[in-house]
Amino acid sequence: MTSFGPSNTPVSLDIPAVKAIVIGAGPAGMSAAARLAEAGVSTMIVDEQAEPGGQIYRSVTTAVRHRQADTDALGASYRHGDALVRRLAASKAIVWCRTQVWNVTRDRDIWVARGGVSYHLRPDVVVIAGGAMERPWPLPGWTLDGVTTAGALQLLLKASGVVPASPPVLAGSGPLLLLLARQLVSVGVGVRAILDTTPRRAAALALARHPGALLGRGLCYLAAGASLVLAIRRAGIPWFRDVSDISISGVESVERVSFRSGGHAQEIETDLIALHQGIISSQPLARLAECAFRWEMLQQHFVPKLDENLESTTPGIFIAGDAAAIVGAEASELQGEIAALGALRRLGLIEDAAHRSGRAPLLRALTAELRIRPFLDAAFASKAEFTAPADEVVVCRCENVTAGQIRAELASGFTDINAIKASLRCGMGPCQGRTCSPIVAGLIARETSRDPATIGTFQSRPPIKPLLISEAVNVRTNVPADRTLIKT
Amino acid sequence: MSVFEPDSSALQTAPSRPRFRRSAVATAEVVSFFVDGRAYEGRQEDTVASAMLASGLTPFSISTLSGRGKTVFCGMGSCFECLVTIDGTPNRQACLTPLLEGMRIERRPTP
């Protein structure tokens, strides 16, 4: 499990002068790094997990080798990740796992922490492929022990084969929630109930509005979705629809969840509930690099402005996969290749004609993959009320700041998101606002009737992950002398 | 230092009824580890977080701010709820740390 990570002996200072750094070893990062290394570029890929795969293919190499039953339950699409990891391993890319990137500047100065020290690197090109996180969903009781996320339950299964002891309640909306339900049935755990907040006719309406979902690879995804629904029905899981007013309660930990469905108040006893409200891209790195963003209405989130090579507004910095906007694993892998080709062009290693002819089939495949996205974004749309909980609900889990405290600040005239951060410490805990930033922004937009696009996000500041003092003071420098290929 | 001393008795009791278990017959090697001085068994493919969950060891810490118990929330290194002390180093993310033989983990109040 630690074969890609730092050893206990001090790490060598003699890392080659890397020309390309890829951040994140999920599908986008692995394909980008492999492509760059295969083209002869000195490439390093870094990731904070113990082995490559990202969240979608988390621990796939180990799981495929040691845990056949779990791998079967996770499906063929999970197994595909193993081939990608093998492609990366066969390339000459340097793979650094258990490595945290803690700063990226617009001039492509990068600091990473690994094995108790930091390294300062200055590549010519950077591909940010940091992936996504689950959209935070503040509810009464969501800070109780026993409340987790659908992503966490799936990752425990993928990485370690650890599953709920008794069937959990799954609440929220989105493909991952339904996929997890089927996987929990497959491994023999089952699901106590699904509390589905998706409006009843959302899928039909979304399909009517986005018929393009029937084109390209869209039909495959729709068929996969239909078989998922069928499997959940066959398993006899109680599936509550149009769910609202979810409230979780218990003394020390979760004991029950109450909600409304079909006009009736309901209550279920449980000691474990997993929340899910779709996924959003993870953006602190691109913000540190001063990449420009725009508001994306359908995904209800900011997305970086990218050209068709996936290069951001900061020259030499490319963003691929779910780190830019949610596109899924297959499209992410294609985007990694497209970003790598763009980076090769940037480095002057391929001619314009070769770049275009290499990119064309990738763009065609990407278009086919993305046909389904507008439908998915519309069918499982985030609702404004999800970021506007009752006053007593905690918004900032680290610093214990409630929605009521934020509303009071707004009422007293503080409407700037960073002013609220400074006055309430909301977003200043260990997670550095990763979880509460979208909630606070949504709350401000709703309470002040402003366009979410104008609210912005918390300022990203280095270090973007907490560091040990040794990691802050022991910085090994590896700055190549000939780094002159890209002028900014 | 906070003047508020949280009740950390919840961390000192014996494991409660576990909310988690192993999915199938484990094939991987057994790894011994210690939590608050007591010995437990995990598996080679465990993270510190999964080993603690499978051993019924929740919560991972008690917040000095709210007094509430914290445990795994995101499972992917983003939320920082699963911070524990590992081999003397405080505030390590349990969900990102592979479990190693003989690891000494301590649960305690955290900010």
Question: Could you walk me through the main structural features you see in this protein, from its secondary elements to its overall organization?
Answer:
The complex is a heterodimer of chains A (488) and B (111). Chain A is α/β, with parallel strands linked by helices. Chain A is 35% helix and 20% strand. Chain A contains 16 helices and 24 strands. Chain A has helices spanning 27-38, 60-66, 68-74, 76-90, 150-160, 175-186, 202-209, 218-234, 284-288, 329-346, 352-370, 373-379, 403-411, 417-424, 437-447, 469-473, and strands spanning 20-23, 43-46, 94-96, 100-104, 110-114, 117-121, 125-128, 132-134, 147-149, 162-164, 169-173, 193-196, 239-240, 244-249, 256-261, 264-269, 273-277, 279-281, 293-296, 301-304, 317-319, 394-396, 401-402, 475-478. Chain A has a five-stranded parallel beta sheet with strand order 3-2-1-7-21, covered by helices on one side. Chain A has a five-stranded parallel beta sheet with strand order 9-17-11-12-13. In chain A, helix 7 (202-209) runs antiparallel to helix 12. Chain A starts with 19 loop residues before the first strand and ends in a 10-residue tail after the last strand. Mean pLDDT of chain A is 91; it is low at 6-13 and 481-488. Chain B is mainly beta and 111 residues long. Chain B has helices at residues 9-12, 48-54; strands spanning 20-22, 30-35, 38-43, 61-63, 69-70, 83-86, 89-93, 103-106, 109-110. A five-stranded mixed beta sheet of chain B has the order 3-2-8-6-7, with helices on one face. In chain B, strands 5-4-9 form a three-stranded mixed beta sheet, with no helix packed on it. In chain B, a hairpin with a 2-residue loop joins strand 6 (83-86) and strand 7 (89-93). Chain B is globular. At the A-B interface, helix 2, helix 3, strand 9, helix 5 and strand 10 of A face strand 1, helix 2 and strand 5 of B. Strand 10 of chain A pairs antiparallel with strand 1 of chain B, so a sheet runs across the interface.
